[in-house]
Design goal:
The protein has about 260 residues and is mostly beta strands. The protein is about 5% helix and about 50% strand. A seven-stranded antiparallel β-sheet has the order 1-4-5-9-8-7-6, with no helix packed on it. Strands 12-15-16-20-19-18-17 form a seven-stranded antiparallel β-sheet, with no helix packed on it. InterPro entries: DUF427 (IPR007361), DUF427_sf (IPR038694).
């Protein structure tokens, strides 16, 4: 299923110190089970920096894609741009538009704010709500956290997450790791690994020390992957999340300069 929306925001892309695309007429393409993609009108893309290549790919839903390399002086990003010059009938809205691979350019902006990882989905909502519910985290029979003051995060398409004050989490079993990820809706995350009964559970806990201004309530709180621990809320064991991909697989497959969470 495809849905093409006109994005009301100004979106611009930079590479090697040059603005490669800058438009107030961007189309956001939504495709089932995929992240949204920005498509720019070709007239809003700096054509002097694009070199068409011989690469072509085929999509059964959209048609045959052509590719362009970005070249700014000695700086080159190969096959960083694609477009459907003659898209299939159901998606003719993107004819005359091109898209950019997120990690093959230097920076993305909505208006004057830099955005990270992927376009923000206007149909996605993230609510961080303070609660007095009793949340307990248990792993391998050992209680790792016990709190009556969680912040519960409800995010469209993602399992409910419980963010707990660090004082309510057993720090003796956690070791900070080098892993970092970024989320376009929450900011940059840091991680901890748990070691219990001689077994290591890597990067099972994360936190946003300085979340983006839209979601300040989770600053400095810790959250566990519900998929790997037992979560009790008001004494009731919560079912493990079942969604169309696991969070860990998804985040590992979509690493960026600062790996996403």
């Amino acid at each position: 299923m495809l849905k093409a929306d006109l994005n009301p925001r100004r979106v611009h892309v930079t590479f090697a110190g040059e603005t490669i695309a800058d438009s107030t007429r961007v189309i956001t393409l939504h495709e089932r089970s995929k992240l949204p993609v920005y498509y720019f009108p070709q007239e809003d893309v700096s054509q002097q920096f694009l070199v068409k290549t011989e690469l072509q790919t085929h999509c059964p839903i959209k048609g045959d894609a052509s590719y362009w390399t970005i070249q700014v002086g000695e700086f080159i990003s190969e096959n960083a741009v694609w477009g459907y010059e003659n898209p299939l009938k159901d998606i003719e809205a993107i004819k005359g538009f091109v898209a950019f691979y997120w990690n093959k350019v230097d920076a993305w902006y909505e208006e004057e704010e830099q955005i990270f990882v992927h376009p923000r989905d206007p149909y996605k909502r993230v609510d961080a709500i303070q609660s007095s519910r009793h949340v307990e985290i248990v792993l391998d029979g050992i209680k790792l956290a016990d709190s009556h003051r969680p912040v519960i995060v409800f995010e469209t398409g993602v399992p409910v997450r419980y963010y707990l004050p660090i004082e309510d989490v057993d720090q003796n079993v956690l070791t900070a790791s080098d892993k970092q990820t970024s989320c376009p809706y929450k900011g940059d995350a840091s991680y901890w690994t748990a070691v219990l009964n001689g077994q290591t559970y890597e990067n099972i806990v994360w936190s946003y020390p300085n979340p983006i201004p839209e979601i300040p309530k989770i600053a400095g709180l810790l959250s566990f992957y519900n998929e790997q621990v037992d979560v009790y809320v008001d004494g009731e064991l919560q079912p493990k999340p079942k969604w169309y991909y696991s969070a860990l697989e998804f985040f590992n497959e979509t690493e960026v300069t600062v790996e996403r969470q």
